[in-house]
């Protein structure tokens, strides 16, 4: 170690290291030292973050944060490609889950446009959504008679990433995918209104008796299956409230 340097940088997190990287690239003659109090680099925030390359949707348009975030996202992807660091541009889907959130979504739409976030679209197609999933529920009501049938079908599909078995340093599934087998379920119910709040009911649940099965990438339990037996029942139901 030398006794003096042109530049000293304190902290070997991503900010210190990337500053050092760019300084030495731009000024190869520069002598530079990075001082780190820990025995290794990236022991703090840099080594414990979520690894997301943020696209710049959220920040106030015109702010330095917004500008640096959008430029930084592109620069980070270029850096990773150049230095063979694995990264994935997996995209991000933002949805409003309640009507109250729609205004917030509009604001994000405005900000992402103003910030020039690349690759945004208002008509996203989920790459891994469950294909050919449908539900049909025919009903028949006439006089005192009421019939309901529920038919639900899910084609085999992969539905999420990053499976872990929950243990510290535990097993990760291959690519973390969960794989559901195709599944068809049929439920039916019929009721007939008798006098004075009494109804005769007959029902059948899971009539196809199909096993719900999935693969979740665990080498210990590679395939899981759940059995819900077919259930058929009949009886009288009494409702104490007066009919109108
Ligand atoms: C939980 C979490 C999740 C995050 N997720 C994301 C994300 O998904 N995407 C994203 O872009 N950002 C994310 N961030 C933010 C991002 O990780 C930080 O902005 C970034 O790592 C900050 O880097 P830094 O180099 O400034 O700090 P640090 O990584 O904390 O590095 C500072 C370094 O300085 C050293 N140091 C401190 N004092 C001294 C001293 N006196 N002498 C010598 N060395 C010293 C420390 O030991 C440390 O190594 C996340 C942050 C957290 C905490």
Structure description:
The protein is of the alpha+beta class. The chain has a domain of 105 residues. 18% of the residues lie in helices and 26% in strands. The protein contains 3 helices and 12 strands, in the order βαβααββββββββββ. The chain is elongated. The relative contact order is 0.08. Flavin-adenine dinucleotide (FAD) binds next to helix 1.
Overview in brief:
It contains 3 helices and 12 strands. With 244 residues, the chain is of the alpha+beta class. It has a domain at 134-238.
Name some characteristics of this structure.
244 residues, alpha+beta, 4-stranded antiparallel beta sheet, 12 strands, elongated, binds flavin-adenine dinucleotide
Q: Mean pLDDT across all residues, rounded? A: 84
- The topology string of helices and strands comes to EHEHHEEEEEEEEEE
So what's the overall shape? Answer: elongated
- How can the largest sheet be summarized? 6 strands, antiparallel
Rg: 29 Å
Work out the number of β strands: 12
Number of DSSP helical runs: 3
Helix content: 10-25%
List each distinct ligand once.
Answer: flavin-adenine dinucleotide
- Unreliable stretches, pLDDT < 50, 5 or more residues? none
Please indicate the percent range of residues in DSSP E strands (runs of 2 or more).
Answer: 25-35%
- Cα(first) to Cα(last) distance is 92 Å
What class do helices, strands and sheet pairing give?
alpha+beta
């Amino acid at each position: 170690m030398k006794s003096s340097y042109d530049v000293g940088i304190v902290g070997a997190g991503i900010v210190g290291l990337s500053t050092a990287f760019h300084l030495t690239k731009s000024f190869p003659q520069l002598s530079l030292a990075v001082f780190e109090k820990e025995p290794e680099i990236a022991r703090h925030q840099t080594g414990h973050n979520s690894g997301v390359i943020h696209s710049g949707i959220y920040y106030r348009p015109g702010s330095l944060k917004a500008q640096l975030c959008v430029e930084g996202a592109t620069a980070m992807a270029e850096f990773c490609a150049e230095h063979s660091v694995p990264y994935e541009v997996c995209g991000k889907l933002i949805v409003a889950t309640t009507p109250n959130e729609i205004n917030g979504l509009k604001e994000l739409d405005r900000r992402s446009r103003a910030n020039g976030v690349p690759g945004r679209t208002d008509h996203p197609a989920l790459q891994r959504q469950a294909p050919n999933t449908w539900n049909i529920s025919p009903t028949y009501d006439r006089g005192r008679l009421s019939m309901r049938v529920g038919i639900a079908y899910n084609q085999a599909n992969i539905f999420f990433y990053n499976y872990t078995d929950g243990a510290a340093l535990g097993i990760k599934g291959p690519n973390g995918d969960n794989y559901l087998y195709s599944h068809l379920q049929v439920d039916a119910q019929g009721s007939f209104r008798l006098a004075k709040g009494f109804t005769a009911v007959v029902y059948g649940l899971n009539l196809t008796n199909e096993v719900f099965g999935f693969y979740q990438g665990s080498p210990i339990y590679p395939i899981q299956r759940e059995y819900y037996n077919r259930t058929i029942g009949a009886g009288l139901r009494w409702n104490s409230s007066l009919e109108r």
